[in-house]
Design a protein that fits this description.
Oligomer: single chain
Structural class: alpha/beta
CATH class of the largest domain: Alpha Beta
Strand content: 5-15%
CATH architecture of the largest domain: 3-Layer(aba) Sandwich
Distance between the termini: 27 Å
CATH topology of the largest domain: Rossmann fold
Largest sheet: 4 strands, mixed
Helix content: 40-55%
CATH superfamily of the largest domain: Response regulator
Length: about 160
């Protein structure tokens, strides 16, 4: 990916904010080009798929923030985040905390809740019915609310990390 020319065009517009909707590596290349061209006056924002860019560029002090459908798993004090940190350390001590794995952990917690409410033998329809019944509630302090219009259980609240 040749990003030099597109970044030069962006810099010519003197942007105060750049929002990356890509993944981490293109975002890292984009921010690196801004810095290499001596342009430091821009704030960078991304989405949850850019979470690694913040870690990769941390040593440069890159001002990257990103949105997420889950709170910051490192700083959040809700019980779900505390359990996530504890379980990650216990079962995967070599793995870093991340927004992505915390979102998966939250999804697994939702599934476990539905499984515990289901009757044996397990039926897909029974599990789905229990997930659909999760209205304005929480799992270990994490707010959930099944929305029949898009079939999402969480993601209405957005965190800026």
């Amino acid at each position: 990916m040749n990003i030099v020319q597109p970044v030069s065009k962006l810099i010519a517009q003197d942007p105060k904010v750049v929002i990356s909707i890509g993944t981490s590596m293109p975002t890292v290349k984009l921010i690196n080009q801004f810095f290499e061209q001596g342009y430091f006056g821009t704030r960078f924002f991304g989405i949850d798929s850019t979470f690694l860019a913040k870690e990769i560029l941390h040593y440069k002090g890159a001002p990257l923030r990103f949105t997420s459908s889950v709170p910051d798993p490192i700083t959040s004090q809700i019980p779900l985040a505390q359990n996530y940190r504890k379980h990650l350390t216990q079962y995967f001590p070599d793995q870093d905390h991340s927004i992505l794995s915390f979102a998966y952990y939250a999804s697994a917690a939702i599934l476990c809740t539905a499984l515990m409410q289901s009757h044996m033998p397990l039926a897909n329809s029974d599990i789905i019915t229990h997930i659909e019944s999760l209205k304005k509630s929480s799992i270990q302090g994490f707010q959930i609310d099944f929305d029949p219009s898009n079939r999402h259980v969480f993601g209405k609240k957005i965190w800026l990390i």
